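Quick note —
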Amino acid sequence: MKEDLKQEVIDFSLKLNSTNLSPLRSGNLSVRVKIDGEDGFYITPSGVMYQRMKLSDIVFMSLDTEYDNLKIANSGLNPSSEWRFHQDIYRKKPEAKAIVHAHSPHATAISTHRKTIPPFHYMIALMGGDDIKCAEYATFGTKELSKNILIALENRKACLMANHGQIAFDESLSKAFELAQEVENICHQYFLAIKLGEPKNLNFAEMQKVLEKVKGYKRG
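Predicted structure written out below.
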């Protein structure tokens, strides 16, 4: 099972590139795992091209350990420089089983305007709320950024990250990846909509109806 999860991390890392969700070496992802009774997660290593990634490159990190910036893995590789917000999300959100962080084109473009995406389309409800928050800017890999992300993820499964990109989590890596694709699609639609001016948004009452209807929307 451990090897299967590592392979899944590699497979979806490759999809970051092949789907253009996150080009080149950008982005990172992780999946929750328990090893010998220790709760933690597998995460992509820092600086390794996805096409060259091997099972032994995937880094295990504990949820109970307070890490510094020293090398962590038995492979000798550093985890992704963004490991901190992965650890904090898993600690704060037990429903999070996998996390995808991407520098997808439209989500990243909108994040540079530090905009919350309003309920211009009902599919925003898939992210868990009636809008998509944008976490305040902080330097990548810092505790400050991690705190900002947790605020933006309150009652939500996805958010933008100012001048950076997007992040999504779900109950499996495949669902987290699909949710990240949904975020990018919504951002693309919003990008097109605002070219015509400010779109007419759905009201609070309508979005509450939608949020109720989308529960259990994705079964497979």
